[in-house]
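Holo prediction. Input below; ligand is flavin mononucleotide.
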Amino acid sequence: MPNNKPSEKLKVLGIAGSPRHDGNTDNLLRQVIDGASSQGAETKTVILSELNIAPCRHCDGCIKTGKCVVDDDMQWIHADLREFDRIVLASPIFFMGVSAQTKAMIDRCQALWVIKYVLKLPVAINPDKERKGFFVSVGGTKFHNLFQPAMATVKSWFTILDIKYVGELVFSGIDEKEAILRHPTALQDAFEIGQKLASVNKPE
Ligand SMILES: Cc1cc2nc3c(=O)[nH]c(=O)nc-3n(C[C@H](O)[C@H](O)[C@H](O)COP(=O)(O)O)c2cc1C
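Structure of the complex:
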């Protein structure tokens, strides 16, 4: 049974993976986070393009300790990823995958992979707590299976984090900056997802 106590504030982390500030995924993520906040959740949003996150070097420096040897912003992001109850990742589709900023952050979670599969320790700070992950994305085209490759990456990342993947909110044919603001339901959809994510023990 999940042990989130009713009095405990749920912690929701939003990760903005687009290099375009106030673009489509930023706007959707803001709504999700506002929706969660409206339910009393404690929220935090990190903007990857403003941070210093080097790509994984595959140096295996983490292999014995589970701690990445590269000293940059990923050190505190690792801590947040292990602690928060809900993680909402927002990334546009770039060449059928997530943005480079997002992929660099994901690859740097190799240190958490070591914790889980080499050291065989829990990744979550409180392993008894129920943790959920959600993916937000947009793509400019209406290409068949546009979101499938990115979703496969994001699902595998949530698996490493010991987080249950609970769904995605994705829109194709959204290219121009802020085009999402003209979508008839997208912002409201995103707000409602935030509300649901912040409701403890209620089904999605
Ligand atoms: C480098 C780059 C690669 C892109 N690749 C794709 C793609 O493979 N498929 C697609 O549908 N749109 C692609 N797009 C379009 C973006 O997904 C689209 O403009 C999106 O609205 C950007 O979201 P944002 O405003 O949140 O950054 C690409 C854009 C850029 C800059």
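The radius of gyration is 16 Å. That is the main takeaway for now.
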